[in-house]
Amino acid sequence: MNIEANTKLSALIKVNPEAVEAIASINRNFEKLRNPLLRKILASRVTIADAARIGGCGVEDFFEKLAPLGFTTTNKAPAVQPKETIAPKPAFLAQLPLASIISLDVCEDITKGNDPFLKIMSAVDALNRSNALLLINTFEPAPLIAILHKKGYACYTEPKGPDLVHTYFWLAGDGSEAHKATETTAQEQTFEEALTCFGDRVKNIDVRHLQMPQPMVTILSELEQLPAGWALHVNHRRVPQLLLPQLEERGFTVAILEAGPGEVYLLIHK
Q1: Contact of 268 with 232, CB cutoff 8 Å
Q2: 81, 143, 238, 261: which has the highest count of C-beta atoms within 10 A?
Q3: pLDDT tens for residues 54-85?
Q4: 185-269 architecture in CATH?
């Protein structure tokens, strides 16, 4: 496989699972990939260039470690800005009183393999134009940054050490962007109409009884085995916000029906 700076880590791992250990050996920042949960969260959204920036190393370090596994590259590796080079705080944060900063430390959740996404989103819901969220984490939360950026939130990341990163989020613009993600996922057809289109070509699964991150892992696994022209009908406890961008990247369309508290139906298809 020929790789470039913009190649996703998930593509490397899919071609050769040994890429996990090869990348982890570059430096301690990448040892987190050995954690199955973090690998699921990060690998599908982080490119080699992203990882090099986060890890404070060069893209060429990845090329060198991956070459023995059969990966090749034809492009010269671009220069990577050292992780230690930190941009100054945006004016909004610099002028914000400490009392207006909501702190959330998820380091323990990450260490235990728990998914803190819902806890983080609950804190995000408390944001307005006069405060900010300080997320204390063991790595730069690239997938979360991408999700919240689409919802109209600004971000500033401040590395504090090898396993400590402070990431700030605050509401930017006029606030209308915060509703765009929900609006753009609305299907032209109703959920029932979309379901009818597939007739008997629907596979049903129920993930309500599974603990995080098993619902996401199960859904992605089922989609890999789904026959062409079929749809996957999922009975879920909630709208899986972290899963949606991964489905979009894989080319899937999702129809969502929130039937009631703790009862959400997803119809996933291509």
Answers
A1: yes
A2: 143
A3: 777 888 999 999 999 999 987 654 444 444 45
A4: 2-Layer Sandwich (3.30)
